[in-house]
TrEMBL record:
InterPro entries: COA8 (IPR018796). Belongs to the COA8 family. GO terms for cellular component: mitochondrial inner membrane. This is APOP1 protein. It is a peripheral membrane protein. It is found in: Mitochondrion inner membrane. It comes from Chaetorhynchus papuensis (pygmy drongo). Keywords: Membrane, Mitochondrion, Mitochondrion inner membrane, Transit peptide. One of its GO terms (biological process) is intrinsic apoptotic signaling pathway. The keyword Membrane applies. The gene is Apopt1.
C-alpha cells in the first residue's frame, strides 16, 4: 500500500488457501489496546490461511488419487488419446466429497471452535477500542465546550 494510505488493504486471493490476505494499517499513534486488536486480527488471518492452505492441498491431492483409482478400476488412463484429462460423473464425485468431508469432520469442528474463540476475542477487543475512543471523544468535546 502507498505510504499515505490510512486503511487496511486487501489483496488478491491466495493461490493455496483461496483467502484474500489483508495488509493491516498501523496508525502512528496506535495505542497498546489497538495494537492487541490488530495483532489478534493478524493472528486470526494467519491461522485461517494455514488451515485452508493445508485443507485445500489435501483436498486436491486426495481428489486426484480418487479419480486416478476410479479410472484405473475402469481400465482407463488419466488422459485420453486426445490429451484430455479423464473425468468421473457427478455421482462418483459425490462419493469422494462425502468421504472427504466425513474423514475431515474433526478437523473442521476444531477449526470452527478455534475460529469462534478468535472472533469472540476480536469482537471483545473491538468493543474495548470503541469504548475508549468514545470516552476520549466525549472528554475532548467536554473540554472544547468549556472553552
Amino acid at each position: 500500500p502507498p505510504a499515505h494510505s490510512h486503511s487496511d488493504w486487501i489483496g488478491p486471493p491466495d493461490k493455496h488457501s483461496n483467502l484474500r490476505p489483508v495488509i493491516f494499517y498501523v496508525p502512528p499513534d496506535e495505542s497498546a489496546l489497538e495494537r492487541r486488536l490488530r495483532e489478534a486480527r493478524q493472528e486470526a488471518q494467519a491461522s485461517n490461511q494455514r488451515f485452508w492452505a493445508r485443507h485445500n492441498r489435501a483436498f486436491r491431492q486426495e481428489k486426484e488419487e480418487f479419480i486416478y483409482s476410479r479410472l484405473k478400476a475402469k481400465g482407463l488412463e488419466m488422459r485420453d488419446e486426445s490429451g484430455q484429462k479423464g473425468t468421473l460423473n457427478a455421482e462418483e464425485m459425490a462419493d469422494f466429497y462425502k468421504d472427504f468431508l466425513s474423514k475431515n469432520l474433526k478437523k473442521h469442528l476444531q477449526y470452527n471452535r478455534d475460529w469462534y474463540k478468535r472472533n469472540f476475542r476480536i469482537t471483545f477487543l473491538m468493543g474495548q477500542v470503541a469504548l475508549v475512543r468514545a470516552l476520549r471523544w466525549l472528554r475532548w468535546r467536554k473540554k472544547n465546550v468549556k472553552q
